[in-house]
Amino acid sequence: MASTMSCSWRVVGTFQCSHTFIRHASTASITVKIPPESPKFIDIPRAPQEYAYKKPHYKGVLPSPRQIFRPGKTDKSTAEYIAAVTPEPTTTKTYSSQKDKALADWKSRQAATRRQNLREGLTQLHQRKVKSDRRMTARSAFRQAEHERRIHEPEREDERLTNPSIIQALKRDSSNHLPDPDREARVIKMKARFEAKESAKAEERRIALHSLYMNARDFIVTEEALNAKVDEVFDHEWFRNYPEHSIWDKEGFPDTVQSMLSELSSSKRGNAQSTSGYIQLTKQRVERIGEELTGGKM
Fold first, then answer.
1. Residue 123: which of 83, 84, 82 has the closest Cα?
2. Which regions of the chain does DSSP assign to beta strands (E)?
């Protein structure tokens, strides 16, 4: 079947048209021309795994569902419980105006909808729970039966034929363990290492406790000390008594690479600056020796 339409004009040139259109009954798609720069220009067979279904990833985590039917509690699937939690109205009221009556009717319809939803929800949730418990029980029974079958199944034919060629030293069962001649020495080393770690931890805890005790002299533990500190910090004459405005003014700027290099070069030349640095280093070393001798932070 085809429909034609003809006309009397022509186009002179390479393309000629008699304005005769032929519409075929075929529904096959027209082949699209693919340019050479397209990746589909050369037909390469695709692997089946490339089109495997990929499970979509959803952001977020769903909360755990509530356990409505708890064992040992009230059975919420019984008709008595459903009737008790969804009681029907027992009284009727009369209203003076039509507006109040319409509002009361709307509220009663909403209450009836909530009662119906609660009844259907409890019933369907109980049916779902029974179905899931039955499916879980069947799956557990199948796994247990499969486990018992695999435990008590007879020896395979290939194992029976190859067992005589295996030497006894390579065979291992539940009562025969591999020899470990260095076990005792390894256990002693592990025990000593564990005791050394525990003693190091105890020493760190003792040092931390002693440091806390030494620093506790500056803690504010009373209301009078807190008031005195607040008055000192928020005093109007603070900037006059303490001209520094920041930690850099109080403690000084940190040492730069250039300052450390210059200090090192001056120590080699024996300048006075190197002597002050040596005095500071000696003071730190003496303080560290005192801490080691006294067993705590000074």
1. 82
2. 2-5, 21-24
Of how many residues is the chain composed? 298
CA–CA gap between residue 165 and residue 159 (Å, rounded): 10
Name which of 226, 223, 228, 211 is nearest 295 in CA terms. Answer: 211
**CB burial string 99-132: b at 16+ within 10 A, e below:** eeeeeeeeeeeeeeeebeeeeeebeebbeeeeee
Both structure tokens of 168: 């006894």
Q: Which of 92, 84, 93, 91 is nearest to 115 (CA)?
A: 84
Amino acid at the residue 220? I
- DSSP assignment, residue 17? -
**CA R_g for the chain:** 45
Which residues are paired to 23 by β-bridges? 3
pLDDT 10s digits, 190-216: 999 999 999 999 989 988 888 888 888
pLDDT, tens only, 209-255: 888 888 888 899 899 999 998 888 787 776 666 666 666 777 778 88
Rounded-to-integer distance, Cα 77 and Cα 60, Å: 32
Amino acid at residue number 14: T
Q: What pLDDT is stored for residue 55 in this prediction? A: 85
Q: Residue 3: its pLDDT value, please? A: 43
Euclidean distance between CA atoms 42 and 46, whole angstroms: 12
Q: Any idea which residue has 């435990």 for tokens?
A: 151
As a whole number of angstroms, the distance between CA 41 and CA 33 comes to: 9
